[in-house]
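Morning!

This is the sequence you dropped in the shared folder:
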Amino acid sequence: MAELLAPAPDFSGWTCPAPLRDQPRIVMGHGGGGTLSSELVEHVFAPAFGSPELSGFPDSAVLRLGGARLAFSTDSFVVRPLFFPGGSIGDLAVNGTVNDLAMSGAVPAFLSCAFLLEEGVELETVARVAEAIGAAARAAGVRVATGDTKVVESGHGDGVYVNTAGIGLVPDGVDIRPDRAVPGDVVIVSGPIGLHGVAVMSVREGLEFGVRIESDCAPLGGLVAAMLAVTPDLHVLRDPTRGGVAAALNEIAASSSVGVLLQERALPVPPEVANACALLGLDPLYVANEGKLVAFVPREHADAVLAAMLAHPLGAGARIIGECVDAHPGMVVARTAFGATRVVDRPLGEQLPRIC
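The structure's back. Tokens below.
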């Protein structure tokens, strides 16, 4: 019987000695989009699945089916509270998956939607979430084509969890991957950062910052289409959700083996986000977003792509924030307002748990 059992994972080859080798149980940081998450996927899930499509861990896999190229993505949403300024778990469930497809240049088409409900949750709450999903799907131009519902015993869930998966078509000539960044690429962010994480935290913790901060949750397919209309040669797109802009840039730098040099003065941090982060000891670069993207664009196309972004409602606050360089491959470095530089490392776990 013993020889039929799969061998235990070999921890000796893991690259990060602290978080996983010495931690025999899952912690919240494993779902935070940082180092813990990437090591869990790299050393546990990917070897077990053995799928070449997982290489590079893109937001969505681009697959060939017949003569078409399809983008395919799935995501689960466990945000608390379920409703927050600017959105809800329903909006996140649609926009999060639609945006993952868009980061491959795909035109989203269909979604699946699965509910995991806790016994005792009010039907009115479930209906509000379902209505939000329907409205967000219509706004994003996709249809919910299939789904599932499960109920767990009271005390074994958190009201409502949602999983969505999506498929979309990738246009001919579009090849957007996390390993396509090259030195000389210009790094553009589509607007102010940190709004979603601070908005969720303010409601969950009952914090007041003097102004109302709303999530930026939105579908980005239209913005990506406007960018692709300028040139199909966009090298990398990423929506900086868990782990924020810092995590997204570090993933791209590592995948492409390039250095990223940020200009800290250029980062579009809204005053209300900056004030909230200063009060709480957070770095806005690590705070989650749900309606923003980071683009790595060839320098010769950067000005035209930026102009197209600025002309779109979801890119009106777009800015060039840095560039790819030959120096320090795999690392992200920020030049401060005083001319010094600092390393912007990948987060270990997550500053703000349960934000999506």
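Headline: Residues 123-140 form the longest helix (18 residues).

More detail when I'm at my desk.
O.
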